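It is worth pausing here to work through a concrete case rather than discussing structure prediction in the abstract. The textbook approach is simple: state the sequence, then state the predicted structure, then interpret. We follow exactly that order.
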Amino acid sequence: MSSHDEYSSDEEELFDENENSEVYLGFVDGPIIDDEEDPEDNELPTIEDTFIGGKPVWLHPESRPDESVLTCPNCNQKLALLLQAFAPIDGKLYDRVIYIFACKNTSQCSRKSNTVKVIRGISQDPSRVSEIKKEQDEAIKNELNEKLRLEDKKKFNIEITKDLFNTDKDKQSSNPFGNSSNPFASSSTSNPFSADSNPFAKKEEPKKEVASKESYAKIASKNAPAKKEKKKSLVSDNDLPSYKGNFVYVDIEKFKKETLDPELEKYKHLIEKGEADSNDPEDNIGSSGKSRRESSSGASIEASSVLDDKFFAAFTERVKHNPNQVLRYNIGGRPLLYSGKDDIAKRFVGNTFNVPNPGYNPSSNRQFELQLMPKAIMDLEEIEDNKDTNIASILNGMSWGTIIVCTDVEDYVPKDSLDENHVAYIEEWCGVQWEDSV
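Step two, the predicted structure:
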């Protein structure tokens, strides 16, 4: 289901328009098509797309990360792409992409260190930098022109209506219906009751903005591949294993008005307390030891699961608003913890994150940027969301609950890391919260 289905106009009344979020969500929005026999029908990604699975698209055809970064340190097999996210930052004059890779050898490498890796790709090609600057200047110019237009219209309305409500006695003594001041004169520019200036006329309500800021980089450049002009893909790597590929559409997070199942209503205070008490690293309740992926992807959960881990309860409650999300993006925000019991959770409780500083920029620190959600597993491994699904087949595949990505606050690029094509690939920090063992 794409975000268009998730937020269809027929279901808008189900969402609470009064609740705003700073989080952007990604939803599967159509498959990547690479048909050698009929290439005219292909839908291939570019660096300006966000997608899960498939093959990576590098920032330049002759530039790719070091082979060691693309290799599993445990089994020495090549890693497969889980996510490629076009992630430009407002005001920055370069292209920026986040890649998440993982080892497909899950039977041997699941839960092992460094079998999931994150790469931040930067392209500072001068021609592209110039193009981005031109686009940003044009956007700023249009925004200023719009503000001036609205201000001029406001001043005009004030000028033509100020005498209508004037209580000055001298002005009241003059004939308001004289030839020179008749507000009902035929001139539409002076008639305070014209459609444009009547303060009592019913005006069309302005459209509500989706969020206080439209970005993450204008919602990932409005990446809806089905509506975009087809572009030639830069390059893919056939030597890398892969999962099924799907484009991802990004939209602002919305909340449904009613989210709790009736049987969970009496546990609502525990869920709210789980979010409120996330600053307390010691207050974690024990484990039930059973798989929770079905719950985290939107199905109902048992009360025992709510009592088991308040962080997972909060995770489930939040995800139930948009159960088909595969990506959460909130740079500088807080991750949605899948569990409160592991070492990864301990890094994010409290007011200050305990995430390692970037070795290439030790005076800086890292901030949360995005996380991959468990629904992505079902799409990557082509698992159908129905009751007949074999749980064993799920557990033999990927077994993480969420993958949390943190990147350098300064988005620093070491000069010696840029190659002759002005491209750099920098390994960043990621934390994997695994499923509970069965």
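Step three, interpretation. The longest helix spans residues 126-161. The chain is about 25% helix and 15% strand.
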